[in-house]
Specification:
There is one protein chain. By secondary structure, the chain is mainly α. It has a two-stranded parallel sheet. The protein is globular, with a radius of gyration of 13 Å.
Amino acid sequence: LKPRDALAAIVSPILADKDRETIVYCNTGHWGSLDWFVFRELLGYSDVKLYEESTAGWTRDASLPVETGPVVQ
């Protein structure tokens, strides 16, 4: 992993509040767990959750909403 300062520098300004609830996920949960670790353990965010089912689990249920749009960097 990059040094803490380098990781903090690439976090979007939308996530500047370290006490804001932040939910991380990916396609299957593998990369999302790394995001959880970085935000929670390295960058000190207090309310980080991993959506374990991630996109694969969410999209199995056709009744759940799926929205597309620009990627938040």
